[in-house]
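Team,

Forwarding the record for the chain on the shared tracking sheet. I've put the sequence and predicted structure together so nobody has to dig through attachments.
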Amino acid sequence: MLVNPWTSPLIVDLGRNFRRIAGIVDPVTNDGLTGSQVTVGAQDARFLIGDDMHPPAPINDLHVVPH
């Protein structure tokens, strides 16, 4: 999530691609498009969806707990 508390829009370079949510309330803003740059309006926020850059580590410490 990106939040812009300022009174003017901000252009943010994200460094990699993120997808916007696809919404029905504001389909112009929440259009589901993917990109590496987003404009966040004044006193507004953007919710973005990205891929995991690092998969979770394997679980190696499992043990049986007696009942």
